[in-house]
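Entry for the shared binder. Reason: the reviewer on the internal report wants the predicted structure included alongside the sequence.
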Amino acid sequence: MAATTTGEPGSPQTRPGLVRVLVDRFGHLVRELSKFATVGGIAFLIDFALFNYLTSVRGVEQVTAKTISTVIAASVAFVGNRFWTWRHRKRSNPAREYALFFFFNGVGLGIAVACLAVSRYGLGSIWPEVFQTPLADNIASFIVGTGLGTLFRFWSYRRFVFVEAGTPSVPEEKHDRDHRA
């Protein structure tokens, strides 16, 4: 049985202390990530439903349908991320945020479309009965493509789009030029 401590110097760290340290250090990241996941989940449902509607009901080609569904879902995601996930962060020029958001979404879209294209047209040319099916399209696009694209988007939005307020500047030290010691 592990001994617990009262926090005295030199005593082993208690588990609640470790959890507290981790929450203090990474709690904001966990909160951001959970909000990002919620917004992303809603955008994912829009993307998924619209993609399948366009391909199954409307007969739109798969890569075109994926592009359309992603652009619409990304618009919803921008609003959710700007006004909920990263609302606590300093707002920069809205046009800059919007442009960068859609640039990085374009890269994320490229990742998802590339996964779909590799599956449907690359692997599908070898095994069409396996890789040119609605199930394979959904796995390549939504599981593999969206998963990889999501990791990239979280990093890029956090790093470049919804930036943290800068660190406060340190006041300059004033030197008395006439005082010589």
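Summary line for the report: The longest helix spans residues 15-57.
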